[in-house]
Amino acid sequence: MCVVGSGWEFASGISYYTHQLTQAFARRGDLLTSAVLMRRLLPARFYPGRARAGDTSIVTQQYPEAVPLFNGVDWFWGLTMPRALRFVVRERPDVIVLQWWTGTVLHSYLALIAAARLCGARVVVEFHETQDTGEAIRPGAAAYVNRVFPRLLRRTDGVVVHSEHDAAVVRERFGLHDRPIAVIPHGPYAQHAGSAGVPGPRRHDQITNLLFFGTIRPYKGLEDLLAAFELLTDAEAGRFRLTVVGETWEGHTLPARMIEESRHRNRIAFVNRYVNDVEVNSYFASADAVVLPYRRSSASGPLHVTMAAGLPVVVTDVGGLTETAARYDGAALVPPGDVPALLSALRELPARCGRRYLDSSSWAESAERYQALFDELLGAPRRPERLGARPADLAGTAAA
C-alpha cells in the first residue's frame, strides 16, 4: 500500500500524521508500505508559514529506511510528477491512501489516482478537513474544490474519517452513501510526548503552567482563552503562568494585541513562531495543563500530543474533538466561544494537575482498522507471512 500526504518542506500537522501513519503500516510487518510526499504545496509566497518553508532544522522525524519514499511532488509539477507516477507504477500498490485537507494537492492527487488505477489499485481518501478553513473563505479556492473534488471522489473506493461527527459531515456534503466510510480514530502523537522523553505531569512551586499550542488562526479560539485569563483576579492570575506557542496565520493578529495589552502580561509568555521538534518536547514537558479553546475542529494534533503526554486538558465541545475527549479521562469539555465557562475551567484546573492520564489510542489499532477496510475493498483478507527485507532496488529513497 502507498500513503500520500504532506512532506516536511511546508511542515504541518498533516506532515506529522502522514509520517506516523506510514510508520504504523510499516510496523505491522504484513504490509509492503511506500509513501509519496507533497513537497511544495503551492508557491511559497502564498504559504502562511513561508518564512520557515524548507527549514530542515524544524523536524527531527525520519521515515524508516525500509519504506520506499518519493519526496516529493511540487504544486507546479515540473519533472516531479512524471517521477512520482513512475514511482507509483513501480511500487504497484493494492491500495493508495490519500491524505485530504487542502485544495492545493487536488490536481496532483487526480494524476496519482490515474497511475494507481492503471496498476489496479483501490483508492482511499482520508479526511482531515473537507477543506482548509483559510482556503474555504476564499471564493476562488472554494469554487475550485467544490467543482473538481467530486471528480476525485468518483474515483474513490473508500473513505476514512476520525469521528462519527466527521462521517456525518462528509456524507451530507458529498453524498457518499454508496461506498464504505470507516471511522478510524487518530493515533497518538508520542513523537512529541511520553516516549520522546517528556516526564509525567508535575507541579511547579504551586504555580500551574498553562499551555496553548498550535498555529494561531481564527478558528483556534485563542482570543477566548485570553479573554478568560484576563478575567482572573490578580491573586488568581498569580497562581498561573500561560505560555502561548504558535505561528500566526491568515493575518490573525488579535491574540497578539490582546497579549500585549493584558493586565496580566507578566504572567504570559508568547512564542510567536513555528517551533522545532526539540522545543515542542520542552514546552509540553514544562506544562501542567493544556488549553485548546477551538471554535470548530475535526481533529487536533496538539490535543493528541497532550494526551500522549498524559496532561489534563480543557478543550471545547465541538466537532470531532467531543468524541476524542470522551475517550480521555484528562479532558474537560467546555462550550465553544463561552468565556465564562472557560474561566471556570481554568479555576478548576490546578486540582486536576500533578497526575498522568492514560491515552487509550494506539497506531496499532488504527492500522488494524485500516486493514479491515483494505480487506473489504480488495474482496478477501490478505494475510501474507511476515515480510523480510525488501529487494535492494526498492528499499531506497526516490529523490526528485
Could you explain how this protein is built, in words?
The protein has 400 residues and is of the alpha/beta class. Helices cover 36% and strands 16% of the residues. It contains 14 helices and 14 strands. The strands form two sheets. It has an eight-stranded parallel β-sheet with strand order 7-6-5-4-1-2-3-14, with helices on both faces. Strands 10-9-8-11-12-13 form a six-stranded parallel β-sheet, with helices on both faces. Helix 6 links the parallel strand 6 and strand 7. The chain is globular and about 65 Å long. The protein starts with a strand and ends with a strand. The relative contact order is 0.14. The C terminus is likely disordered.
Topology:
Blueprint: E1 2-6, H1 13-28, E2 34-38, E3 69-73, H2 80-91, E4 95-100, H3 106-118, E5 122-127, H4 133-136, H5 139-154, E6 158-161, H6 164-174, E7 181-183, E8 208-213, H7 222-230, H8 234-237, E9 240-245, H9 254-261, E10 268-271, H10 277-286, E11 289-292, H11 301-309, E12 313-316, H12 321-326, E13 331-334, H13 339-348, H14 363-378, E14 397-399
Parallel strand pairs: 1-2, 1-4, 2-3, 3-14, 4-5, 5-6, 6-7, 8-9, 8-11, 9-10, 11-12, 12-13
Helix pairs in contact: 1-14, 2-3, 3-5, 7-9, 7-13
